[in-house]
Design a protein that fits this description.
3 helices; elongated; mainly alpha
């Protein structure tokens, strides 16, 4: 196995594993945490104004985290396409 095969491209090798497995799992965890925050702070503790305020901040930071994840994933894919490592869609 050569180094190029080990590193791979957008769908194979180490880059492929990160691009097709690790990153989507991180997105799934971030989304589940966001949904849990919504359920916990608004549905389970809906009558408590302090918890609702905490929930707003939790949801805001969850949305910002997901936007940041999407932005970083996009930049990485643009770099891979530019360098010719990942096949263009």
């Amino acid at each position: 196995m050569t180094f190029a095969q080990f590193v791979g491209n957008g769908t194979t090798g180490i880059i492929g594993v990160f691009n097709t497995v690790v990153i989507p799992v991180i997105f799934a965890f971030a989304f589940i945490a966001f949904i849990w925050g919504v359920v916990d702070h608004f549905f389970l503790n809906g009558g408590n104004e302090v918890k609702r305020k905490e929930g707003r901040y939790f949801i805001l930071w969850g949305i910002l985290a997901m936007v940041l994840l999407f932005a970083i994933w996009g930049v990485v894919n643009i770099m891979l396409s530019t360098l010719g490592i990942a096949p263009s869609p």
